[in-house]
Write a structure and sequence with these properties.
Elements: H1 6-9, E1 14-15, E2 27-29, H2 34-47, E3 50-54, H3 60-74, H4 78-85, E4 92-98, E5 103-113, H5 125-146, H6 154-160, E6 165-173, E7 187-194, E8 200-205, E9 211-214, E10 220-222, E11 230-234, H7 236-241, E12 251-255, E13 262-270, E14 276-277, E15 295-296, H8 297-304
Parallel strand pairs: 2-3
Antiparallel strand pairs: 1-7, 3-11, 4-5, 5-6, 6-13, 7-12, 8-11, 8-13, 9-10, 9-12, 14-15
Helix pairs in contact: 2-5, 5-6
C-alpha cells in the first residue's frame, strides 16, 4: 500500500456530491447472435457512449493473475517502482500528477505505449493485451455491422494494425485513511472527469467501487463493479467518425474508501498517427452536414496533450 503524506492529501481536489443519481448501465452480451449484439452496442453508443460487456471470452484466471502481479508491483517502495520503468513523461510510473497541465488525483499508475513493447515488470500483461485487442476488433466489427457499413473491418483495422497507436494504463487508487468526515457521500478525486481521446477504450477494474459516468442531466451515476465484465468507452475520435451520433462518455473516479484500494486497467485504442479523422459519409443521412473539421489522429493527440482533463477537447475542431 502506498502511504501518502498530509500535504499530498490537501493538494487533491475534493468531491462533495451529496448523492449520486440513479441510472442503469447498458449491457452487451457477446454470447448472443451477432445481429442482437450489434444492435445492443449501437444503442448503447448512441445513448451514452458507455456499456458493460459480458461473456467476452477473456479468461478470468488471466485477469486475476494480471491483477495480482499489478498489486504486487504497486506494493513496492516508491523508489523501486519509478526505477523499474522510469518516471512518467508521459509514459512510465506516475504518482498523483496526471499529465503536464496541473491535474492531480489520489492515484499512482503505469502508462505506456503498447506499440513500443516496453520492459514492464508484469509477466501476464502481454497475453492480456493480445486478448483485449482481439476483443476490441470484434466489438468494432459489430459496430460496423450495426451501422450497415460496406467494410466490416473498416473501424477494426484502424486500431488493430501494427501502426495503430495503442496506450495501456494501470491505475492504483490507494485507500485513504485521512479522508475528512462529513463529506456526505463525497470523497477525493482519484481521476478527474474527462473523455478519452481515442476511438475506443476497454476498462477492467477489480471489485472496488469508484467509477462514475456522467448522466444526461449533468448528474453522476455510480458504475457497480463487476469482476467478470469489461467496460467500453466511446472516445472523442469515434464521436467525430460518427458525426456525433455516438457519444464520447465523460467519466471520473472518486476515492471514498478508507481501507480498500482500487485497481483498474485501461487499453486505449487509437489509430495510426497519420489516420485522418472525419465523419464517415456512408453512415450520414442525406443533407446531414459534418460537425467537425477533419484532422489527423497525430494532430488531435498533440492538441489533447495541451489541455486539462476536464476540457472539451473537440470544441476547437467544431465547424
Amino acid at each position: 500500500m502506498v502511504v501518502l503524506s498530509d500535504p499530498a492529501l490537501h493538494q487533491i481536489p475534493l468531491v462533495k456530491s451529496a448523492k449520486l443519481a440513479a441510472g442503469s448501465i447498458s449491457v452487451v452480451d457477446l454470447s448472443k447472435p451477432r445481429a442482437a449484439a450489434a444492435a445492443a452496442i449501437i444503442e448503447a453508443c448512441e445513448d451514452s457512449g458507455f456499456f458493460k460487456v459480458v461473456n467476452h471470452g477473456i479468461p478470468l484466471e488471466l485477469v486475476r493473475r494480471l491483477e495480482a502481479e499489478a498489486a504486487a508491483f504497486f506494493a513496492r517502495p516508491p523508489a523501486d517502482k519509478e526505477s523499474a520503468i522510469g518516471p512518467a513523461d508521459p509514459f512510465g510510473y506516475g504518482h498523483q500528477t496526471i499529465g503536464r497541465n496541473g491535474d492531480v488525483g489520489w492515484v499512482e499508475y503505469l502508462l505506456f505505449a503498447v506499440s513500443a513493447s516496453p520492459a514492464v515488470p508484469i509477466s501476464s500483461l502481454g497475453e492480456y493485451l493480445v486478448a483485449v485487442k482481439r476483443l476490441a476488433g470484434e466489438i468494432l466489427e459489430l459496430v460496423a455491422e450495426g451501422l450497415r457499413m460496406k467494410q466490416r473491418d473498416r473501424l477494426s483495422k484502424m486500431v488493430t494494425v501494427e501502426e495503430s497507436d495503442g496506450i495501456f494504463r494501470l491505475n492504483h487508487y490507494p485507500p485513504c485513511p485521512l479522508l475528512l468526515e462529513g463529506f456526505n457521500g463525497g470523497g477525493l478525486t482519484g481521476f478527474g472527469e474527462h473523455t478519452d481521446p481515442q476511438i475506443m477504450s476497454v476498462l477492467r477494474s477489480d471489485g472496488a467501487s469508484g467509477l462514475q459516468v456522467a448522466g444526461k442531466d449533468g448528474s453522476w451515476i455510480a458504475v457497480p463493479p463487476d469482476r467478470r465484465a469489461l467496460f467500453v468507452n466511446v472516445g472523442d475520435a469515434m464521436q467525430v467518425l460518427t458525426n456525433r451520433r455516438f457519444k464520447s462518455m465523460r467519466h471520473r473516479v472518486v476515492v471514498t474508501d478508507t481501507e480498500r484500494s482500487r485497481l483498474s486497467m485501461i487499453y486505449f485504442f487509437g489509430p495510426a498517427e497519420e489516420t485522418r479523422i472525419t465523419a464517415m459519409e456512408e453512415i450520414m443521412v442525406e443533407g446531414e452536414e459534418q460537425r467537425y473539421n477533419e484532422f489527423t489522429w497525430g494532430e488531435y493527440k498533440k492538441a489533447a496533450y495541451k489541455t486539462r482533463l476536464g476540457d472539451d477537447r473537440l470544441k476547437q475542431f467544431e465547424k
